[in-house]
Amino acid sequence: MIYSLTLNPSIDYIMKLDEFKDGATNRSYEDKKFPGGKGIMVAKLLKNLGEDPINLGFIGGFTGSYIVDSLDKLGIKEEFTKIDGDSRINVKLKYDEETEINAGGPEINEDEINSFLEKISELNSTDTLILSGSIPKSLGLYFYKKILDKKNLEFTIDIGGKELLDYLSYKPLLVKPNIDELEAIFETKIDDRNILTYAKKLYELGAQNVIISLGKDGSIFVSDDISLKAKPIEGKLINSVGAGDSMVGGFIYGIKNGLSKEKAYKLAVACGTATAFSEDIASKDYIYEILEKVEVNEYGN
What we know:
- The chain is an alpha/beta fold.
- The protein has helices at residues 38-49, 61-73, 110-121, 143-150, 179-186, 195-204, 243-256, 261-276, 284-291, and strands at 2-6, 10-16, 30-36, 54-59, 77-78, 81-82, 88-94, 98-101, 128-132, 154-158, 174-175, 210-213, 219-223, 226-230, 296-298.
- Helix 4 (143-150) links the parallel strand 9 (128-132) and strand 10 (154-158).
- 42% of the residues are buried.
- The model has no long low-confidence stretch (mean pLDDT 93).
- Belongs to the carbohydrate kinase PfkB family. LacC subfamily. Belongs to the carbohydrate kinase pfkB family.
């Protein structure tokens, strides 16, 4: 079973404006609400591909009820731990730029934490747990370690910043920083001359598979003796929210369904690209349409 963890789920409130003026009243011409949080995005992608993932995390208040109801309408399972606080609302402004205002999240008490960790202890050692996204401040910076120390599980982790290094000894199935996050992790400037070196360093430190997303320049993949680069695919960027999460979901789907690592990477690229070109997480049909356009080549060998 695949479990997707969102410690800090949200309602993503997307507002489209002709223009944005700082310090003035701005009016949107269109707005939409989606259940948000990186783990939920991964779960939506997996569901679209035909998997049946289960969402874990903390949920509460009227916002939490909206998130749960929205997932139920999509046929996505959840076993969230209920909390007293309200789940957050994140505002995404779209005009000639994209601006995000993300809330910090609710306070979570000790009883709620213990209830959640008990649920984690019930997972089977053959399950896959997808860890991604921000951690509410009340849980502490290294709460993911409490989860991994609680149960020996196959897992992926998608977090930005230097703290990713602290999880590589647990041998995650996949890590997927973007180039800016890779710079933050190693505290150095990354470019074409050294990106493969630092991607391989993540692998050498324990990550079983590494994807580095390069935005409009594509992505690279490192694993075992494989180093690949995917060419970018032409198209109109509609929604960058969830593109990276879709890459994670696509790769895990591929591996869990017997694809080679190269084919799983190609599917990950198709999933991320298709979502970037869609209003929400990409549909299965569109993903496989994009997959026909994915081209990967050996990189740096």
